Amino acid sequence: MDPAVRFAALVSGPPPGLRLDHACSLLAAAFTGDYHYDRVMRSLDELAATVTEKSLGGVLAAMRGRLTGDRENYFDAKNSFIDAVLVRGLGLPITLSVIAIEIGRRVDVPIVGVSLPSHFIVRESASDVFGDPFHAGAIYDRAGVVSAWHRLVGEGHPFDELHLAPVDDRTILIRILNNLRALYSRGQDPRALYALAVMRGGFVELAHEAREHARWVRHYN
């Protein structure tokens, strides 16, 4: 079955069936045509095996030196594809955060995503410890996150405490697709537009986009 169709079925199905490692593998395959699920699982398992301390800091330490942010080619589509990120060692904040979440799940360290405006980080779910996989796995307390965010976006943007609320897996996947939509919707890649239409169409939260999705599919056909 087409990876985009499988992805849409996954996100529209029962919530217990949704896992980020599986969903992100399908998402990457929908754009590239190459489904590397087994390789992704193996890479995540190998990273998890190197965690020596069951904490967010321990998970980020396992990633440090192997995975970091791609500052030179930030908008490269490969930075959104989990299989490519695990091979290249470079990715976007959100893709690296997914990897941290999935390593944490494997070692019984609950980690959640934090969807800051203009950035994405992770948080140890039971505490106010935050981590930034894009910036060498930096660890912050709550005040440190606010300070880092102001350095990133500038002092003229007030910080809202709601920015620190954890987001669920569906929100993470939609934000990844938002990044890819910004990348592909201006171009003429029919396969990418089809993949976006089918996968975004799997989210009831995006039902208002139905007309746009139909236009993308017509373009593909």
Write a concise synopsis of the structure shown:
The protein is α+β, with helices and mostly antiparallel strands and 221 residues long. The chain is built from ten helices and seven strands. It has helices spanning 3-11, 20-32, 37-49, 56-63, 82-88, 93-106, 142-153, 169-184, 190-200, 210-220, and strands spanning 68-69, 90-91, 111-114, 121-124, 130-132, 138-140, 166-167.
Give start-end ranges of low-pLDDT stretches.
Answer: none
- Rg, Cα atoms, Å: 17 Å
Strand order of the largest sheet: 6-5-4-3-7
What is the end-to-end distance? 18 Å
Bin the helical content. 40-55%
Main beta sheet strand tally, sense and closure: 5 strands, antiparallel
Helix vs. strand class: alpha+beta
Mean pLDDT across residues: 92
The overall strand count is 7
- Global shape: globular
Count of DSSP-assigned helices: 10
Order of helices and strands: HHHHEHEHEEEEHEHHH
- β content, as a range? 5-15%
Oligomer: single chain
